[in-house]
């Protein structure tokens, strides 16, 4: 019933916001030209929950604080936001180890931590800090992935209304370097501290005043935090993002140094402070490296000391949604594990990671490539020797990628609880399930292709596909370790039948040869037929499957649930879209979405 109400709440909120937006647009365009009004009812019938939620967030992001939202719409929006928060796997701040402590003459030392992740995923935190602009009303551009947008999206529309109230009372823009405090509303934090950092032009060097103002941001936030009530466990925890970096163009390395120095300086001048913990939260790999360096320099200068505290053994209870998911899986007769790119990323093989690319493909950065994902559909290689030097390096990296505790946990789940009553189906081509982590080949299908095969791009014959291993073994000694180029062009693979060009056998174009994977898909269908024939129940565990190719894994899983007559249940886990199910499926008691880090989700399902 609750999820049915969510469908209604989402429809009402979207309808109001659409109609309001169209009315505003119509008044602006009156007398100029005709405009096409969107078919909101058609949209609600066709769009899935994820796209509707993205639209809701975009419309709320663009909407000014005045006039205020009608109470019913505000109530609907908050019902949706609170539901989404209830399905997130949050990170208790008590589980984040304190790396350093600031020596103090007071009753206790403030502990410093460094954590990389979404600041709105922190649980048991007194206050998170928002890097705001001087208007203090949030960012009005939905496409901006700034911290201002992230925090307002988590807190919901009441946050903008409260910020507007504070600014009306103040009567002027927020000064750079100061701070204000608001409730956290729907975000999993008690309070939000808003501060405005100095803004530079791209490439501009910060002045001494800019540096002082940035330091003042951190100190002003801590000033405000001192007056906030502590958590139930007695701690007072403040988490800072990277202030003024990103669109405000402050150099990241210097910003990290200023942040660390400012916090240390403030704590030393406030020995009696009730603040117990400061967490530097970063989102980008490079920022994590900057903070590691800044904290290391503080340790060398003896302004901080190493913290030897252990992570508390007793942490807040896990999200109840995990218990429901565990029960569904443990009570099922059969298990289907399905996976997308998010699972490989959670095991470290992340196609969006710049650090992975820098480490394993450094020579190819000169071509403008920064991530493995950048090579999708990219064919501006200087030569075939460059192209195959890259792809042979990628194939070797996937082949030697170490066995993962994450996959081991999934294998243990499948074998210990389901013996021979499980199957794995993935859109990933890396082969990690059978080749690297011991899953049985006879219970595996990868319909999108596999790195273990090369294929003729012309598909000159239906069987024009070949094992990549012999070609890889022959080529590796000739891949230059400095340039990444294949130095012996005779090792460039060609079709064994027609002599034409070959490529990885993956679904990257209409030339894809599905034949090597037909047997796996037949085994998958046999598995489903067996479940149906025996009248048994099936649990589907879907991990890291987003909206890139939903027709391969995501939508077929939903079809199984809808046609399963209550005997098929879906547990969907991952970040963003990968952790969301349509509200009608959830209302039927047949599907749940869990949003969060896949490692944490699987750990929660096993414990």
TrEMBL record:
InterPro entries: DHS-like_NAD/FAD-binding_dom (IPR029035), Macro_dom (IPR002589), Macro_dom-like (IPR043472). It holds the Pfam family Macro. This is Appr-1-p processing. It comes from the Eukaryota. The keyword Zinc applies. It comes from Botryosphaeria dothidea. Residues 99-299 form the Macro domain. The keyword Zinc applies. PANTHER family: ADP-RIBOSE 1''-PHOSPHATE PHOSPHATASE (PTHR11106:SF121), GANGLIOSIDE INDUCED DIFFERENTIATION ASSOCIATED PROTEIN 2-RELATED (PTHR11106). Keywords: Glycosidase, Hydrolase, Metal-binding, Zinc. GO terms for molecular function: hydrolase activity, acting on glycosyl bonds; metal ion binding. Gene3D superfamilies: Leucine Aminopeptidase, subunit E, domain 1. Its cofactor is Zn(2+).
């Amino acid at each position: 019933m609750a999820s049915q109400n969510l469908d209604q709440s989402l429809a009402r909120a979207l309808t109001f916001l659409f109609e309001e937006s169209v009315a505003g647009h119509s008044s602006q365009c009156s007398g100029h030209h005709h405009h096409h009004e969107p078919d909101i009812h058609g949209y609600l019938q066709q769009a899935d929950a994820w796209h509707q939620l993205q639209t809701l967030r975009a419309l709320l992001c663009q909407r000014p604080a005045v006039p205020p939202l009608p109470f019913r719409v505000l109530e609907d929006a908050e019902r949706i936001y609170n539901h989404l928060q209830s399905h997130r796997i949050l990170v208790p701040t008590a589980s984040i180890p304190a790396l350093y402590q600031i020596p103090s003459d007071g009753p206790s030392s403030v502990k410093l931590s460094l954590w990389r992740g979404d600041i709105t995923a922190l649980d048991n935190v007194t206050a998170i800090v928002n890097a705001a602009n001087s208007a203090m009303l949030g960012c009005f551009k939905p496409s901006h992935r700034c911290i201002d947008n992230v925090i307002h999206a988590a807190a919901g529309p009441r946050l903008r209304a409260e910020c507007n109230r504070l600014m009306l009372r103040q009567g002027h823009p927020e000064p750079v370097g100061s701070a204000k405090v608001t409730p956290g509303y729907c975000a999993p934090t008690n309070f939000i501290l808003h501060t405005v950092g100095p803004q530079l032009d791209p490439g501009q060097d910060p002045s001494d005043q800019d540096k002082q103002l940035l330091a003042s941001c951190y100190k002003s936030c801590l000033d405000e935090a001192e007056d906030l009530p502590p958590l139930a466990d007695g701690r007072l925890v403040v988490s800072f993002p990277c202030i003024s970096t990103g669109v405000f163009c402050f150099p990241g390395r210097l910003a990290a140094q200023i942040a660390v120095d400012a916090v240390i300086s403030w704590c030393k001048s406030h020995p009696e402070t009730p603040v117990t913990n400061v967490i530097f939260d970063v989102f980008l790999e490079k920022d994590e490296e900057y903070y590691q360096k800044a904290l290391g320099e503080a340790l060398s200068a003896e302004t901080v000391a190493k913290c030897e505290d252990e992570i508390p053994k007793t942490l807040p209870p896990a999200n109840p949604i995990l218990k429901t998911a565990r029960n569904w899986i443990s009570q099922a007769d059969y298990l289907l594990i399905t996976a997308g790119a998010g699972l490989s990323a959670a095991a470290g093989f992340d196609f969006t990671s710049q650090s992975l690319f820098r480490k394993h493909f450094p020579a190819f950065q000169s071509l403008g490539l920064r991530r493995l994902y950048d090579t999708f559909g990219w064919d501006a290689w200087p030569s075939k020797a460059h192209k195959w030097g890259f792809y042979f390096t990628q194939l070797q990296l996937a082949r030697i990628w170490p066995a993962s505790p994450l996959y081991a946990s999934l294998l243990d789940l499948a074998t210990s609880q389901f013996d021979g009553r499980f199957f794995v189906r993935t859109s990933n081509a890396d082969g990690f399930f059978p080749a690297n982590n011991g899953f049985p080949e006879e219970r595996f299908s990868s319909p999108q292709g596999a790195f273990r095969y090369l294929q003729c791009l012309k598909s000159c014959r239906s069987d024009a596909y070949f094992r990549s291993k012999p070609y890889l073994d022959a080529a590796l000694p000739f891949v230059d370790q400095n340039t990444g180029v294949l130095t012996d062009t005779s090792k460039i693979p060609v079709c064994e039948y027609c002599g034409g060009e070959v490529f990885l056998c993956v679904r990257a174009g209409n030339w894809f040869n599905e034949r090597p994977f037909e047997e796996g898909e037949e085994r998958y269908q046999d598995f489903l037929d067996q479940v149906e024939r025996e009248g048994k129940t099936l649990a589907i565990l879907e991990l890291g499957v987003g909206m890139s190719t939903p027709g391969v894994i995501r939508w077929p899983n939903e079809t199984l649930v809808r046609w399963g007559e209550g005997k098929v249940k879906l547990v969907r886990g991952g970040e963003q879209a990968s952790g969301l199910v349509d509200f009608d499926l959830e209302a039927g008691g047949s599907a749940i979405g869990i949003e969060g880090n896949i490692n944490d989700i699987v750990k929660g399902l096993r414990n």
